[in-house]
């Protein structure tokens, strides 16, 4: 039998120290390396990106000249202060970013754009700068351009860290409809961080979402009548977070997104009953954060109700936050496939 719990009954409390200690790659990317990245032979930009990231890793580990070495012009590495990977969904940008993090000596930090904005909210901007300025490398996954306030905040943070000598690396997603249209993601990124633009090496990674490359389509949702039996059979001896979907999304409004990682702590799988299309933007954005944390921990999903490609409204999927929703659908689909077929997401 599975050990059944309910996310809707969890209210995790997270200290500032715990937030700071959590800036490392998720278990999904806990042991990745440049060698374990498998470039698509049909996409030469992927192999080029691996080579460029290897060079950047070497540059991060080269100490800045000090004292007499600085005075007499000791040679500094040719690489720029920042490295930005621009590409579509599922081409391995996070894999490469985590590989960079693993390849260099600390102190170093790895987190998503949202996790850094949450850190600023918890510590204050100035204390966040003070804490991260002591690091050699700060990796920012999934840099987002859809919230002007947060983008300006992160641009300022990156500028101050670069001024302090911290090497920076970031990834972002090109929208599926924008692929091949002038690299809009890179252009937008550089416009939003004008002061840093000339300090960043921008590398494009082309390719299709590996989560669907050569794999079957996402399985249909489990019927409500079969859901409990499937949970008992497939997750025997494991901890399963079993929730009514409507109850769960209501509960998420009471838990700060910075705590979603702890919300799912110890959970081996999730089961959602009667999934429905989310129609409120604020609810949808919170759910995207939960989807990211579940994907980070590779938590398989069994769900009844509507399929995940109908989780968000058509207006949302074509609106200002479409990048977030496309990513969430891609990741939830992968986890649903794993939940039903056992295939790794």
TrEMBL record:
Official protein name in the record: Cell division protein ZapE
A Gene Ontology biological process term: cell division
GO cellular component: cytoplasm
Record carries keyword Amino-acid biosynthesis: no
Record keywords: ATP-binding, Cell cycle, Cell division, Nucleotide-binding
Molecular function GO labels: ATP binding; ATP hydrolysis activity
Membrane-spanning parts: none
């Amino acid at each position: 039998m599975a050990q059944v719990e309910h996310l809707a009954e969890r209210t995790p409390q997270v200290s500032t120290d715990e937030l700071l200690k959590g800036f490392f790659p998720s278990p999904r990317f806990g042991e990745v390396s440049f060698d374990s990245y498998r470039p698509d032979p049909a996409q030469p930009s992927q192999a080029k990106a691996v080579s460029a990231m290897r060079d950047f890793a070497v540059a991060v580990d080269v100490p800045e000249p000090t004292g007499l070495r600085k005075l007499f012009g000791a040679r500094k590495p040719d690489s720029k202060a920042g490295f930005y990977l621009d590409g579509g969904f599922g081409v391995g940008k996070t894999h490469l970013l985590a590989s960079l993090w693993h390849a260099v000596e600390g102190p170093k930090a790895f987190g998503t754009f949202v996790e850094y904005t949450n850190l600023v909210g918890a510590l204050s901007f100035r204390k966040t700068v003070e804490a991260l300025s002591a690091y050699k490398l700060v990796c920012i996954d999934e840099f987002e351009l859809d919230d002007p306030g947060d983008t300006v905040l992160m641009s300022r943070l990156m500028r101050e860290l670069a001024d302090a000598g911290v090497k920076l690396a970031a990834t972002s997603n090109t929208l599926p409809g924008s692929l091949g249209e002038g690299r809009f993601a890179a252009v937008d990124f550089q416009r939003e961080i004008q002061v840093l633009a000339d300090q960043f090496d921008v590398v494009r990674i082309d390719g299709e979402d590996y989560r669907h490359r050569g794999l079957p389509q996402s399985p249909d949702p489990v019927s409500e009548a079969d859901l409990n039996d499937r949970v008992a059979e497939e997750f025997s001896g494991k901890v399963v977070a079993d929730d009514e979907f409507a109850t769960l999304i209501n509960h998420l409004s009471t838990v700060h997104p910075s705590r979603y990682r702890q919300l799912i702590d110890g959970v081996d799988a999730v089961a959602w009953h009667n999934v429905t299309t989310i129609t409120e933007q604020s609810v949808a954005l919170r759910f995207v954060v939960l989807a990211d944390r579940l994907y980070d921990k590779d938590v398989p999903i069994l769900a009844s109700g509507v399929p995940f490609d109908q989780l968000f409204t058509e207006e949302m999927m074509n609106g200002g936050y479409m990048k977030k929703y496309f990513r969430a659908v891609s990741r939830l689909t992968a986890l649903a496939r794993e939940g039903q077929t056992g295939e790794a997401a």
